[in-house]
Amino acid sequence: MTHPDPAVDAALSGSFVGLKINLAERHPDFKEAAGGSTVPWAPTFRYSDPKGREIRRTVGWFDVGDYLAELGMARGLGEIGRGRFAEALTELDAIAAGESRFAPEAAYYGGVAAFLGGKRDMALLKERWNRLRADRPGHEWAQRAAVVEDLP
């Protein structure tokens, strides 16, 4: 799979195996490739682990910066799923520090990775989620982190 932007092409070829399905010509294996779910619109990007379990799914086009961040989100969430929390934090913290639309989501999952990788130390989760709430008040991902107020 190739992309016209060299940075996206490098990110794809370094970590992903692309599968392009022509929706106009249904292949018999389409249901298996789609993960047993519908594809509401094209393009649909489905990121799976080596066992075929879905990690993430997005629909629609992104500009280059957001697409690179989206690929980083998929890598970061995949690392969480493999229990490689330091690697997940490297991916997620880089996105959270940027200006992408995915920065708040990356900050949220960075809290999850820090918590899980830090022997479930609630202070690590609280620190990151409180920072997210302070930096992005009212954002959807800050609202999801509001549960931190009720944590011990």
Describe it.
It contains seven helices and two strands, in the order ααββααααα. The chain is mostly helical and 152 residues long. It has one domain: Serine Threonine Protein Phosphatase 5, Tetratricopeptide repeat (Alpha Horseshoe). The protein has a two-stranded antiparallel ribbon with strand order 1-2. Helix 1 runs parallel beside helix 3, helix 3 packs antiparallel against helix 4 and helix 4 packs antiparallel against helix 5. It is elongated and about 55 Å long. The chain starts with 5 loop residues before the first helix and ends in an 8-residue tail after the last helix.
Keywords:
152 residues; mainly alpha; Serine Threonine Protein Phosphatase 5, Tetratricopeptide repeat; 7 helices; 2 strands
Secondary structure elements and pairings:
Elements: H1 6-15, H2 30-33, E1 44-48, E2 54-59, H3 64-81, H4 85-96, H5 103-117, H6 122-135, H7 140-144
Antiparallel strand pairs: 1-2
